Amino acid sequence: MITFPVTQKKADALRSRMKQCGLQEADFEEKFIRSSGPGGQKTNKTASCVYLIHKPTGTEVKCDKERSQGLNRYYARKFMCEQIESKTEGVKSKQQFKAEKIRKQKKRRKRRAADKLKRKD
C-alpha cells in the first residue's frame, strides 16, 4: 500500500474513488521522469514527474504539478480517476459539467455585452 504525503482523509478519499472507478494499483505501470520548467540544476537531478499508465484501458497520465514526487503520485492517480470517469460517464462527469458551466457563462456575458452596446446606440 502506497502512502501519500497528504492527510489521511484525502488518501482514503482517493482510495475509495479508485475503488469506485475500478482502478487497482496492480493495473498501473508507473515511471518517474525529470520534470520540466524552472528550477535549474534541481530539475536536472531529480525525477519528480510521474508518468502513469493504466494497462487495461491504455489511459496515460503525466503529472509534474508539484515539486514533490509523492504529491505528484497522488495527483496522477487523482487525474487518472477523472480520466476514467469522463470515459465511462461521459456528459455526467464533473470535468465536463464544469466545462459546460463555463461555456454557458461566457455565452451569457457575450450576450449581455452585445445588449449593452445596442442600448448605447
From TrEMBL:
Any Pfam family: RF-1
Keywords from the named record: Transit peptide
Residues annotated as transmembrane: none
Stretches for region Disordered: 88-121
SUPFAM superfamilies with a match to the protein in the record: Release factor
Source taxon at top rank: Bacteria
Compositionally biased region (Basic and acidic residues): 88-102
Single GO MF annotation: translation release factor activity
Compositional bias segments (type: Basic residues): 103-113
InterPro entries: Mito_Transl_Release_Factor, Pep_chain_release_fac_I, Pep_chain_release_fac_I_sf
Domain Prokaryotic-type class I peptide chain release factors as annotated: residue spans: 22-114
Protein family per UniProt: Belongs to the prokaryotic/mitochondrial release factor family.
PANTHER family in alphabetical order: MITOCHONDRIAL TRANSLATION RELEASE FACTOR IN RESCUE (PTHR46203:SF1), PROBABLE PEPTIDE CHAIN RELEASE FACTOR C12ORF65 (PTHR46203)
Protein name: Peptide chain release factor 1
Organism: Sedimentisphaera cyanobacteriorum
Organism phylogeny: Bacteria, Pseudomonadati, Planctomycetota, Phycisphaerae, Sedimentisphaerales
